[in-house]
Fold this sequence. Notes:
Blueprint: H1 8-30, E1 38-42, H2 55-75, E2 81-87, H3 94-101, H4 106-110, H5 121-132, E3 143-146
Parallel strand pairs: 1-2, 2-3
Amino acid sequence: MMLTEMSHEYFDKILNTNFKGPIFLSQQLVEFMEDAGAIVNTTSSSKNQSFPGYSVYGSLKAAFSTWTRYIAKELAPRQIRVNAISPGPTHSNFGDGAFDKHPEFIKPLAEQSVFGRIGQPEDMAKVIVNLLSDDFGWVTAQDIEVSGGHLL
Length: 152
């Protein structure tokens, strides 16, 4: 939503969904986590791009990425690793299923990827599973873009 069109209600909804909610959920969940665990947050490649109408969303995802680094430091004494992934355009229910409702959006976005396609949920899941595994036990406070080289 463009700045000049944004309401307080819209801002609060985006803030609560993309920043406040995940932070307070993490606060609750970390109480139940065993030491030496791992957390993977989901931010967005939109935090590194400037598309009209995405100023609040992209800014909050950037804030969540920064928060990931801070919380990695805070949880380090418990050996809990905290990382994030930043998906690029991915066929998901984002935007209330925008890609299913408007398949014409897929081709132009796919053409912006070096692999000529948009991401699939499985592309994100593979990275998350690896970040949670012991194979990535020396990785923390990172935000990995998983975008297929979108806008590279």
